[in-house]
Structure formats: structure tokens, C-alpha cells
Amino acid sequence: MSFLSGLFGKEKKESLDQGLQKSKENFFGKLSKALIGKSTVDDEVLDNLEEILISSDVGVDTTLKIVKRIQDRVARDKYLGTSELDAILKEEVAALLSETNHGGESDFETPAGTKPYVLMVVGVNGVGKTTTIGKLSAQFKKKGKNVVLGAADTFRAAAVDQLILWGERTGVPVISKGMNTDPSAVAFEAVQKGVELNADVIIIDTAGRLHTKTNLMNELSKIKRSIEKVLPGAPHDVLLVLDGSTGQNAVIQAREFTKATEVSCLAITKLDGTAKGGVVIGISDEFKIPVKYIGVGEKVDDLQVFNKAEFVDSLFKKI
Hints:
By secondary structure, this protein is an alpha/beta fold. The chain has two domains: 3-100, Four Helix Bundle (Hemerythrin (Met), subunit A), CATH 1.20.120.140; 117-307, 3-Layer(aba) Sandwich (Rossmann fold). The chain has helices at residues 3-8, 10-19, 21-34, 43-55, 60-76, 85-100, 129-142, 157-170, 183-196, 213-230, 248-260, 279-287, 308-315; strands at 117-122, 147-151, 174-175, 201-205, 237-243, 265-269, 291-295, 303-305. Strands 3-2-4-1-5-6-7-8 form an eight-stranded mixed beta sheet, sandwiched between helices. Helix 3 (21-34) runs antiparallel to helix 4, helix 6 runs antiparallel to helix 13 and helix 9 (183-196) runs parallel beside helix 10.
């Protein structure tokens, strides 16, 4: 068992390794082919690497940044061989993730001195937003925290019903006024109830999509104002949930939501079913917003607190 496995928990690390398997196979399969017959990192190798990173959904700007860093290292060390490329690439990706994800990753802990911790969750329908909220509530509950959920995605009946189901499954109270009701009124009541119940965590589900960006912006702003009326300074975080399997579509959604509201952290789901795991690197770099959670499977425990060291270790672990 590696040092990282011992440090972060063997089962969690195995789940992460397994969840990133498709991304790893896709990336290293292409890289191995590109390096056949090559012993030094020349312009052709760097061009191939650029193409591989872009096709792995790392994103053009982030890819160019990584390749430039490797190019600079090659220029400094004339004897750099292709056998060392994996290690250098791993170091540069880790360094890039460190610029946004500053460490201090804790296992479903809330910020010290913040009670209740209010988390407002945004994201389009179909990305796993409500499921992520359900899994989050289960994980926080497991840590001994009192959780309250607010079903403020009132434009979609399935979202309200799904959240209520998660509440029943995890033994967490869900504040709901049903479908087609005012989302900000639901958010207000959820925070009010959370304060009454001395909750540690209050999670508010919000509308996935409205007809225009202006409507979305107005709705999210209204919900935030309602929350703040009950608890000044809340919400403490706005979590954007993105589906990692959609690759560059997730990037487009991130652009849309960061314009509509002040997103402070990200959850990237469905990484186990895709070869597009590189999107985590690209999104983290482009938006300078920390990735807080990643989803690497169906089980509750497969929603993990993102740890850049673990992620890079799993992504670059030899097949």
C-alpha cells in the first residue's frame, strides 16, 4: 500500500483509482503510441502531447500552458528523455492544480466557527446536482453533523421528489413547498428551520435552468438575498455541480454560471464513466475556482472531497 493510500484511506484511494481508469487508459494509451521510437522530447513529441491533452478535455489554454512549461524544462535540460516525460507531466499538472486548490482538504468538515454552514447548490438539470446534494448530506451526517435540506428547485417536480427521497434515505429533514412555488421562500424557510434545529449544515438546491441567463441571475440573486435575511453572511459557499463526462460542455456551463452568480467551489461528477477526466484540470485552471468534490461512482462514498495529490497520483499511476 502506497503512502497516499495509507494517509487518505485505502478504500477511498482504490475507488478514485478505479473511477479515473478510463481517463488514464485513454491518455496513456495515446501517449505511449506517440512516443514509440522516440528517446528525446523534441518538437514532434510536444506537438503530439498537445494534441493528446486537448483530446483528453484538458482545454486549449490549459494545454498550451502545460506544454510551454515542459518546453521550458526541456530547454533547461538538454538531456531530457521521453522516459522522464510522465514524471515531468505529473509535476506540472500538480503544480497547476495547486495554484487554485491550495490544500487543506478536509474530509467533509465545515469551516471553523461557521454554524450553520449554508451551501447553495447550482447547476443545470442532468449533471447529478440533486444526487450530489443527497450524497453530501449522507457524508456530512456520517461525520456526526446535523443537516437540513431545502428543495428550492421548484420548477422541476422530479428534483423536489428526489430530494425528499434522499432526505428519507439519510434521515435528514427536507424543507419543501412542492413544485411551482417561490424558490426564495423555500430557501428562507430552510435556513430558518436549520437555525431552529441548531443544524451544522444547510444545503439549498436551486433551479437548474431558466429561460434566459437574466432570469437565472435574478432567481439566484433573489435566493441569496432570502438566505441572507435569516443569516447575514450566508450562503457561505455557492457550489456549482458539473458533469465531467460532458467534457467541454461542462466548461461552457461553468462560464454561464460564473457570470450568473458568484460560484465559490465546484463539484465534478460522473468521472468514472468517462475518459474526459482531464476536464478537472482545465476547469480548475481556467476559472480559478477550487474543485471541492468529485464523483467517481454510484455509491455515496464515491462522492469524495477533492484532494489534488490523490487525484494526480491516481491519474498518473501506471496501468
